[in-house]
Write a structure and sequence with these properties.
By secondary structure, the chain is an all-alpha fold. The chain has 3 helices and no strands.
Length: about 90
């Protein structure tokens, strides 16, 4: 029994000759969607790796503290030095 005959006698409605092409189109589109999802997953994994290398709150607080501390030390040192006379 051919596919068309089997589908016609299956009790699921009349055979639609265009259905095979539509299913093939859907399969092709799903393959493209899967490929795009794989690319997105790969990029997300790379971004996750890069984000994990960033400093957390403690690292940011340390950097800000160092900047403020060095700036304050420079201001104190400048105030202790004698003023330059022209």
């Amino acid at each position: 029994m051919r596919d068309a005959e089997r589908l016609q006698t299956g009790g699921g409605g009349p055979y639609d000759p265009g259905m095979e092409q539509r299913v093939a189109n859907l399969e092709n589109r799903m393959n493209r969607v899967e490929a795009k999802l794989d690319a997105i997953n790969e990029r997300t994994a790379r971004m996750d790796g890069e984000i994990s290398r960033l400093p957390g709150y403690g690292g940011i607080a340390l950097v800000v503290g160092l900047i403020v501390g060095l700036s304050t030390a420079a201001q104190i040192a400048a105030s202790l030095l004698p003023a330059a006379t022209p």
